[in-house]
Specification:
The chain has 691 residues and is α+β, with helices and mostly antiparallel strands. 58% of the residues lie in helices and 7% in strands. The protein is built from 29 helices and nine strands. It has a five-stranded mixed β-sheet with strand order 3-4-5-9-6, sandwiched between helices. The protein has a two-stranded antiparallel sheet with strand order 1-2. It is globular and about 80 Å long.
């Protein structure tokens, strides 16, 4: 009981106190680290930093040559002589050793300001990708791996899963087909790639714009109007791109303008409808060639969802559960429009504007003021503190480590109890020219444990935050705080992963599963006790964000979210249906789904969302459901294990050991069920959306 009281007292520290505690710890460790690292080496990391353009290309060629050598050696093993040592082990060791070298070639294009280095990085990645593609089609290697797999002589479940995974990879590339069918598969893949790129190119090349005068754009801030190009008559050009369309749909007070923009945006690239129809036909052909009923079954086969049928059941169950709450939201929005604009019918184009208005009316939140409570250094220290308390981790900055820019920091991660060195992560979070423009995590080295040798993981977190200038602290918008917490969840997942094979380590996990830990951690951005850990007024960091604002932020998160979620489900169902059936009338399907899912709200007349739906073309084809899937499981975990005891380290350590540590070496649904003590449920997610 006394220990529990002490733990709660530590957790109750304000953001300023947390920063001070972490700063003292960092200062002490920095002195020790400085003495140990005069040569600026990073023990245990095979990631190569600051390579020149020529060094990047030479390394890429070396990677390809070494990989070919190993694959040739495996291919030469007689089928009656296959063993773990001469078949699986060489491929596993090659992957573990080469991944950090591959990333050493690939990541400079994200962080370097040098045009030559970026070009070399892109070219190196092209060469390596081409080689990997050739290896994935090597029938001689496939035969040997298949022979080992057929023997069933497994050393353990991880070896079995790895060998079966390799076989499945080869067979998804058609190596179990006849040569004639294999050639057809190659043609189909080439045609699919060409049509996918044509669809995206058509969207990117679209230069359509609308002309509005200032009166028609009432409600838009002056800085937005200044950013618009002018037509010859002095009116404003609104380009049909999201950076113009979204502000207008959210902020413009003129209903006719919002509708004109929404209709024009939904009519873009009508030629893409025929492109998508041909693309879907080819995907179904490819799936049938590989033995699947349709493309959706092919896409979901090796994912947590496992089948298209399960996806349909999942989406429809959530949609039905949200209907009552969404109907209440829609009634309030319609009433608000009547008060603002009179008896004009409420349309789908009105959703962004009136949802924003009603949330502002119900929740007294000034996000400009909220930003003043989130200095970057304080947020970072708070995130470290939360993860330390939850997952039993300790973070120490590595001073004088070799980095590619003076703003980049390197941290070591240790187990808080044993002191075991678990891995490293680089923070490259401050804005500069030539750098990748979004927040993301890149796995630089995957963890592995092969032949009694442990390779520790290394991660890189990239962002574009504004650093302190002229004594003014770098401050973060609340959305940036949530995003940083989310991405740091990927860092923690990467570092805590203990999968024996590099293939199942890092972030190369089931896409239906990989976002769950990060989405889980977002919850700590909306709870008062954790918000106080990561906040402090920039002029006096001993003053964390107040309780009322914490409550408002939590209400803001889920307020009027049911109708928006049903709209997202509409697109997910459309994506799933066209990839599950042949010869679908896409325009008719969208009209039908829109009226059914969106509570009778009609689709905007003349629009064709299928012609401007890039997610179903590249990246999320037949898997658009995946984000909602992950959110559902994250909500279940938080509500069941953490909501009533936010810093429950027993639950945190159980999550680390049961869910984070196995990585891809274990079935995701089995891991989550083991952690929860039952099969996951959608109820917590649905309850969070109920009005």
């Amino acid at each position: 009981m006394e220990n529990e009281r002490k733990r709660r007292n530590v957790i109750a520290l304000t953001g300023a106190a947390a920063l001070l505690a972490v700063a003292v710890n960092f200062a002490a460790s920095a002195i020790n680290t400085h003495l140990k690292n005069r040569k600026r080496k990073v023990p245990g990391s095979n990631v190569r930093i600051n390579l020149s353009a020529s060094e990047i290309l030479r390394l890429a060629d070396h990677i390809v040559a070494k990989s070919k050598e190993v694959h040739d050696a495996v291919a030469s093993v007689p089928l009656d002589k296959v063993t773990y040592a001469n078949t699986i082990l060489p491929l596993a060791e090659l992957e573990a050793h080469q991944f950090p070298l591959v990333q050493s070639c690939a990541f400079p294009k994200l962080v370097s300001a040098s045009e030559d280095i970026c070009k070399a990085s892109i070219e190196a990645e092209r060469r390596i990708d081409a080689h990997v593609s050739r290896c994935s089609k090597r029938e001689d290697v496939y035969r040997v791996v298949k022979a080992f797999s057929a023997r069933g002589d497994w050393m353990n479940s991880e070896v079995k899963r790895f060998a079966q995974y390799l076989v499945q990879e080869f067979e998804r590339n058609g190596l179990n087909l006849t040569s004639t069918k294999r050639e057809e598969l190659l043609r189909l893949n080439a045609q699919i790639d060409e049509l996918s790129m044509r669809y995206i190119r058509n969207l990117n090349d679209d230069t359509t714009f609308l002309i509005f005068n200032e009166t028609e754009l009432v409600g838009l801030p002056p800085e937005f109007l200044k950013s618009l190009d002018k037509a010859e008559n002095g009116n404003f050009k609104v380009v049909l791109r999201s950076h113009h369309v979204s502000p207008i749909l959210e902020l413009c007070k003129v209903g006719s303008t919002r509708k004109s923009v929404a209709v024009a945006y939904g009519r873009r690239c009508e030629v893409n409808l025929s492109v998508l129809e041909k693309l879907i036909q080819l995907r179904h052909k490819l799936a049938r060639l590989l033995g699947y009923l349709n493309y959706a079954e092919y896409a979901t086969d090796r994912r947590m969802a496992n089948s298209s049928t399960k996806v349909f059941e999942f989406l429809e169950k959530i949609s039905a559960s949200l209907t009552e709450s969404a109907s209440k939201e829609l009634s309030l929005l319609k009433e608000l429009k009547r008060k603002e604009e009179g008896e004009f019918p409420f349309g789908v184009e009105d959703l962004p504007y009136y949802v924003k208005m009603i949330k502002e009316q119900q929740l007294d939140l000034d996000f400009g003021l909220v930003k003043q409570y989130f200095p970057i250094t304080l947020v970072l220290s708070g995130i470290f503190k939360v993860c330390q308390d939850l997952f039993g981790l300790r973070f120490e900055q590595v001073v004088d480590a070799e980095v590619w820019h003076q703003d980049v920091q390197l941290y070591s991660v240790f187990d808080l109890s044993s002191g075991e060195h678990m891995g490293y992560f680089y923070l490259d979070i401050y804005s500069r020219g030539g750098k990748y423009g979004h927040t993301c995590v890149v796995a630089l080295q995957n963890g592995s444990s092969i032949n009694c040798s442990r390779q520790i993981p290394v991660a890189l977190l990239i962002s574009q935050l504004q650093k302190e200038v002229d004594g003014n602290p770098g401050l973060m918008r609340f959305s940036e705080v949530v995003n940083l917490f989310h991405e740091f969840g990927h860092v923690v997942h990467h570092i805590c992963n203990r999968a024996p094979f590099a293939r199942f380590s890092g972030l190369r996990l089931d896409p239906d599963f990989v976002e769950i830990p990060s989405l889980l951690l977002e919850n700590w951005c909306y709870e008062s006790s954790s918000l106080k850990l990561i906040s402090g007024f920039h002029q006096d960091i001993t003053k964390p964000i107040d309780d009322e604002t914490c409550k408002s932020l939590k209400r803001w998160r889920c307020s009027f979210s049911a109708l928006k979620l049903k709209q997202e489900i509409l697109y997910c169902l459309f994506d799933q249906i066209i990839h599950s059936n042949e010869n679908v009338d896409m325009v008719g399907l969208f009209n039908h789904l829109h009226s059914k899912i969106m509570l009778g709200l009609p689709m905007l007349e003349g629009t064709n969302p299928a012609s401007c739906f890039p997610r179903t073309v590249i990246g999320y084809e037949a898997t658009c459901y995946s984000r909602i899937w992950s959110e559902v499981f994250a909500a279940d975990i938080f509500t069941t294990k953490f909501r009533d005891d936010l810093f429950n380290q027993n639950a945190g350590m159980h999550f680390r050991n049961t869910v984070l540590a196995p990585g891809g070496a274990k079935d995701p649904l089995e891991m989550l069920s083991d952690f929860l003590g039952r099969e996951p449920s959608i109820q917590a997610f649905v309850d969070s959306k109920i009005y």
